[in-house]
Known about the structure:
The two termini are 21 Å apart. The protein is mostly helical. The mean pLDDT is 85. It has helices at 3-43, 54-84. The chain has one domain (3-84). Helix content is 77%, strand content 0%. The protein is built from two helices and no strands.
Amino acid sequence: MTDRHSILIKEIDLIQSVINRMAHTSFLIKGWAISVMGFIFALQSNKDIMFVTVIPIILFWVLDTYFLQQERLYRKLYTWVIKNRMTDDSHIYV
């Protein structure tokens, strides 16, 4: 295996580990959202302050959206690297 191939494999592994971390973080955010919402609904005795439950839902939704967007961008980078890295050194992942 040439030096260029080993660098390509390392770069692909690095990008894949970032994608896996993003997916895992998104999964954890969804779990925390379910836990927090269950806790809020269990402790809420006053029905007049039900609008407070919307705040954590929106915050978890924004966080999950951010991590999913980042994961998609890294998947595009992964695809680009596999297609173009052997002929092009732009966007090198250092």
